[in-house]
Amino acid sequence: MAMRNPKTEPEYPIASPTYAHVVGWGMAVPENVMTNDDISAFVETNDEWIVARTGIKERRIASEDESTATLAYKAAQRALEIADILPIDLDLIVVATSTPENIFPSTASLVQDWLNASHAGAFDLSAACSGFVYALNMAADSIRAGSITTALVIGSETMSRILDWQDRSTCILFGDGAGAVVLQASKVEGGVLSSVLRSDGAGCDLLAIPSVGSIDADESRAGSNGHQLFKMYMVGSEVFKFATRVVNDSIDQATKLAGLDVSDIDLVIPHQANYRILQSAARKLKIDINKFMSNVDRYGNTSAASIPIALCEAIEQKRIHDKDHIALVGFGGGLTWASMIIQWGIPEPSQQQSSLINRQRRNILYYTAKWRSRSRRWRRRVNKTMEYLRPKRGRVPRLLRKVDEDDRL
Ligand code: COA
Fold first, then answer.
1. Cβ atoms 246, 331 nearer than 8 A
2. What span, in angstroms and rounded, lies between the C-alpha atoms of 385 and 119?
3. Is the separation of the CB atoms in 153 and 97 below 8 Å?
4. Largest CA distance in the chain
5. Could you please report the per-residue DSSP string of 150-211?
6. Does residue 244 belong to any structural domain of this protein?
7. CA–CA separation, 183 vs 204, rounded Å?
8. In terms of Cα–Cα distance, which of 290, 291, 289, 293 is closest to 308?
């Protein structure tokens, strides 16, 4: 038997490191387009002003049938398709959002149910426009630590529902949409290389949406500071200064943490708030502005959804190649900001083929998820009615007890 050399071989075998790779992606935006001219029909503004100050030309607005969860669900389905995995393979679903369906249950729980992802934990994450990078970092850390293997990370927003459509300084900026990625454990080197997350709560009054737990929920106070519940308010010029101050530093820090130089970055996928913020960051970092992915002209600011949507479009436009170094950077309410460096390491979309059998299995799971949820609700309703009708003694109560037992199973 070969003897262990204590100088070169550790006493206990060291597991080879696990990396977290993006293996699937998808986006969903509402069909309804609202142009700058459409907005100028109800507030005093114009296309020229909006384009010059922000770069935004139009945005998508959710219809009555669309919500943060339905957009998230569509984006998630597309991401699973590209990754060619089944919903039951997911260990974790995180939805980064500032416009959740409910305070609770989480939007992520709804998506988990609709996908039939029966082995996944699910929660929402609140870090405003930095939320997607925060969520991706949480999922990547869990994968690298070995506690999970596959995560679905979604950024989804219906900003149109929390805008004050009379406030021309905010309503021109935002839009609705969702983007999702599947992150998976791999022994192939690369994937998420580094992340830097930051917050400065002293700026909490610069950009916010007061909710039920807020002192703004007290109507006497709400009247005094003029903030409406569930409506966004923003001090635009201060947020602009904050963004132009932190974006370049944040990318620089994440790049160094990954052991790279800024010149190694092949593509920056920034939060799409304002084209002037991207120009400023590119200037300060001395990176060609063409290396900054931008689609702010077509979608406006979709908050936590903007980075995954821009990532999907960058892939579609073949701007990302194997081994490329991608920098993601988010910034927004909190104040929060976050950067991440990813080394792309999976086949290009054209090489990625979803197998027919898995597609059918996914469709069956989506279909049965709908029926399972409906039948559970229906049974609960029947049980409630039967409880009401339940006589005290005799044969019928025994039968009802049996129904209860079956239901628990
Ligand atoms: N159309 C026409 N005029 C407008 C307007 C609009 N939609 N919104 C504001 N104005 C006016 C203001 O009333 C002001 O008029 P005044 O000088 O007569 O008072 C003037 O334009 C300048 O306003 P100001 O707020 O200083 O403009 P700005 O150059 O800072 O641009 C923003 C405003 C909102 C575009 C800019 O501050 C910004 O992009 N901030 C960052 C916002 C952001 O990205 N938030 C999300 C971060 S995640």
1. yes
2. 32
3. no
4. 84
5. EEEEEEEEEGGGT--TT-HHHHTTB-EEEEEEEEEEESSS-EEEEEEEEE-GGGTTTEE---
6. yes
7. 31
8. 293
Residue list, ligand 1 pocket, CB within 6 Å: 45, 49-50, 53-54, 129, 168-169, 172, 234, 236-237, 239-240, 273-274, 301, 331-332
370 within some domain: no
Asked if the structure places residue 302 within a domain, the reply is yes
Instruction: Report which ligand 1 atom has the smallest distance to the Cα of 237.
Output: 37
Mean pLDDT of the chain: 91
Segments of 248-299 assigned E as strands: 267-270
Q: How far apart are CA 258 and CA 242, in angstroms?
A: 24
Decide if 241 contacts 274 (C-beta within 8 A): no
Count how many domains the chain has: 1
Strand partners for 152: 93, 182
Please list, residue by residue across 249-279, b when 16 or more beta carbons sit within 10 angstroms of its beta carbon and e when fewer do. bbbbebbeebebebeebebbbbbbbbbbbbe
The pTM assigned to this predicted structure is 0.90
Q: Is the pLDDT of residue 98 over 80?
A: yes
Encode pLDDT of 127-179 as tens digits.
999 999 999 999 999 999 999 999 999 999 999 999 999 999 999 999 999 99
Query: By residue range, what is the domain housing residue 69?
Result: 19-356
Which residue's CA is the nearest one to ligand 1's atom 20?
169
pLDDT band at 223 (very low <50, low <70, confident <90, very high): very low
What are the phi and psi torsion angles at 166 (to 5°)? -95, -10
CATH, residue 224:
3.40.47.10
Q: In this structure, are residues 282 and 288 in contact, taking their beta carbons and an 8 Å threshold?
A: yes
In a domain, 379, yes or no: no
- Three-state secondary structure call for residue 125: strand
- CA 354/CA 363 separation, integer angstroms: 13
